[in-house]
Amino acid sequence: MLKLLNVSKRRNRFLLDDISVELQGGYIMGLIGENGAGKTTLLELIAGLLSADKGRILVEGLSLAEEEAAVKQEIGVVFHGDMFDIHDTLLRNVRRYGRFYQNYEEGIWQKYAALFGLDGKKRYGRLSKGEKLKFALAFALSHQPKLLLLDEPAANFDKDFRQIFGKVLREYVAGGENTVILSTHLTSDLDMLADYLLFIKGGRQLLYGDIESIREGFRMAAGEEYKLKLMKDRIIHMESGAFGARALVRNTGRPFDAALKVWEPSMEELMYFMEKGEG
Fold it and tell me: Are the beta carbons of 198 and 18 closer than 8 angstroms?
């Protein structure tokens, strides 16, 4: 469904370098990394808002560089910033911009507007930040894209709406044809929603794969520091404290010292220790 083949982009002094991903329909991919890692740049490249310096981006087998108009019909975006007319109502906005999409259906927008608690008569400029993101999501879903790109929307949603948000995304991919890329800092989103994970650090691809395989490839280990240091070739990052040490280590299949406490890392632990350790 989506292929990124050795995609690179330089923006001033920042380089997003050699990103390669292949993701089939029916899945949600979590895109993670600290601020400045390149997440938004990558989403803007896939959306066609930026042009790659190297590599290829394909959606539904179509090259973004060669068939941009057709590819953009298949993409919905929820990005930060005012992407709609602040002086117009929500309904006038969706009617104005919806006509650019072949598969736009106002009835779909009305359904999600009702679910999200949006008033079509309200002016866009009077919405809160969270409401603007809800509106962008409702609009994106209304033109029935195959690929939905979400740039950290959930941090602006309250707990109750995050449950609705998760249900909507799961329903969106349930048929096996649609795909979501969700950039997020919230590990709860990843635990609840993500099937795949792309981890970017400093513009480089650190990890990519299905979440269960990634988790299986690592373990957290805790105990006496000297025992952990015996695994130095497997350690990603180790931290010491008054009551011992803990580390994220590669799970190579070799046995662990029986004196160590060993467990599968949570998504929060994996993100934290990978950020501290690799590269």
Answer: no
20: DSSP letter: E
pLDDT in tens, 96-116: 999 999 999 999 999 999 999
In 3D space, the residue among 65, 49, 59 whose CA is nearest the CA of residue 21 turns out to be 59
Name the one residue in this structure whose structure tokens are 């973004």. 64
Q: What type of residue is 237?
A: H
Q: Point out the domain boundary residue: 213, 243, 269.
A: 213
Residue 32, exposed/middle/buried by CB under 10 A (0-12, 13-18, 19+)?
Answer: buried
pLDDT in tens, 127-167: 999 999 999 999 999 999 999 999 999 888 888 999 999 99
* Residues 232 and 168 placed together within one structural domain of the fold: no
| Helix/strand number for the chain, H first, E second | 10, 14
- Inter-CA distances, 225 with 171, 228, 264, Å: 46, 5, 19
**CATH number of the domain that residue 158 is part of:** 3.40.50.300
CB 187 within 8 A of CB 267: yes
Residue 68 domain boundaries: 2-213
* Gyration radius (Cα) of the chain, Å: 21
> Quick one: 106 exposed, middle or buried, by C-beta within 10 A (0-12, 13-18, 19+)?
middle
